[in-house]
Write a structure and sequence with these properties.
8-stranded mixed sheet; two-stranded antiparallel sheet; alpha+beta; 12 strands; 2 domains
């Protein structure tokens, strides 16, 4: 074979190889353009996180917080608000906030903020604890009139009025003691409890009980407290939904309290109500 033929064949082979590479590159470029699918690149970036105290469920206004309402959750450190409760700065926050009341509604997964709750002892705690439209009324109690100190905040009680009245009969004036249940299923908001003893047995006692009542019911209790003595009887937890969880007063409770404060006078065998 002549040298010229060898040179021609070598040039042809090199040209064929170059053409093959060119066609492959064009095919790859054309295929990426025709598909219309953008190329996704996943870049992993390590983000520093902190444990933040968040709400474990939706918490409406007035919710009395318990440990079940909180949980610690990972939160990007760069977005942590200085007011958040973090496990690094306030590790006891869950225990410290137990017993607080929600002042502004919280939602599932939302970080707890001091501005949205009222802690025990803070101004406005009792107001936050009250249901809308309700009133807080304090009455004096004793171990004998409040189930020997076993009544605690958030318990339900009945309110009983006891009163001594004088009745006029054929024998003259006779004293009698009358009792009537004026309210049922009343929610106890607070009791100023202190340690003491009843008949030598250590117990918790208090001198004042604060109840959650409607405006009308506060008038009934205030009038009853002026005309006699009040006693609180503890109700079972099983009765918590009695009357849909609301305090119940008798339809004629105003008349009952007013009548009980009167003196019954007998004239010619007929009983009439006189002044107290």
């Amino acid at each position: 074979m002549s040298p010229m033929r060898i040179i021609i064949l070598a040039v042809a082979a090199i040209a064929a190889i170059g053409a093959a590479f060119l066609v492959r590159n064009l095919a790859e470029t054309s295929g990426g353009t025709d598909s219309g699918t953008p190329v996704e690149r996943i870049v992993e970036v390590e983000v520093s996180q902190m444990k933040v105290l968040i709400a474990q469920a939706d918490l409406p206004v007035g919710t009395l917080l318990t440990p079940e309402n909180f949980e610690w959750a990972d939160w990007p450190e760069k977005t942590v608000n200085p007011n958040y409760f973090t496990q690094l700065t306030t590790p006891e926050a869950m225990e410290e906030l137990t017993g607080s009341v929600v002042k502004t509604a919280l939602f599932l997964g939302e970080p707890i903020l001091p501005q949205k709750i009222v802690q025990k002892g803070e101004t406005g705690f009792m107001a936050a604890l009250l249901e809308p439209g309700m009133r807080a009324l304090a009455v004096e109690i004793s171990p004998e009139s409040a189930s020997a100190g076993f009544i605690l905040p958030d318990d339900r009680v009945d309110v009983i009025l006891t009163q001594d009245v004088e009745l006029m009969d054929g024998q003259g004036m006779t004293e009698r003691t009358l009792t009537t249940t004026i309210l049922q299923n009343v929610r106890i908001l607070a009791i100023d409890q202190t340690f003491g003893d009843v008949e030598g047995v250590p117990t918790m006692t208090g001198s004042t009980a604060t109840m959650e009542l409607t405006p009308e019911q506060t008038e009934v209790v205030t009038l009853a407290a002026r005309t006699g003595s009040l006693s609180l009887t503890l109700r079972s937890y099983a009765d918590a939904n009695f009357n849909n969880g609301q305090a119940l007063s008798k339809p004629d409770v105003f008349e009952d309290v007013d009548t009980v404060a009167r003196v019954m006078i007998y004239k010619n065998g007929t009983a009439t109500a006189g002044g107290s």
